[in-house]
Amino acid sequence: MEFVDLKVERRTATGKGVARKLRRQGQIPAVLYGEGDSIPLMADPKSLLRALGTEAGSNVILNLTVVDGQEHTRKAMVKEVQVDPVTGMILHADLLAISMERLIEVGVPVELVGVAIGVKEKGGIVNQILRELVVRCLPGAIPDKIVIDVSPLDIGDVLHVTDLPIPGGVELLTDTGEVVVTVTPPVVEEVAAPAVEEAPAEEEAAKVPAGEAGAEPEATGKRPEKK
User: Fold this and answer.
1) How far is CA 203 from each of CA 157, 199, 206, 215, rounded to the nearest angstrom?
2) Does the first or last residue of the chain, that is N or C, have fewer Cβ atoms within 10 Å of its Cβ?
3) Would you say residue 160 has pLDDT above 60?
């Protein structure tokens, strides 16, 4: 678990107009929840991005310093961020005040490592069905990620949540019966059979012998004889 320092300032004004003004000034609006009333803040988006860019990702613990005439320090985590889809910059952040002595529920990413034997030797395909586990633990015990070595997996093998290595002090909340990883056979493309060309109607007609049922008699141009 990583700890990152982050300094923010308390703000009194709220609303969309204030938010736009803050962004023009290189700041973003933020809100701190978890201790009584929510506290409106303004923060440096680049500093927050750096904090989220650590190995802990969104589970990084912030040494949050709130400037409000004087400085107050507390522990917090990032609850949610709103990101500009074009620039990737943070537009708004919700922070959650925490206690290091109180259990917390968080999502932990699942990461696959290695090359499955079913892929290496038989051309199979590894399918990751579940990418995050929900756990409960003390903030200091939150794992950065759950790592699974898929090297021993052959075609047809399946890993469930119950098969995963969960660190001590971490309570798993995700259903243990859920499928995490499967290895399936390679996809075989079906080759279409060559199309059989039909003979033109003229050729079929030419094959019918003269005089067979349904065939018109050949005109000779002679008049019938009178009896």
Assistant:
1) 58, 6, 5, 15
2) C
3) yes
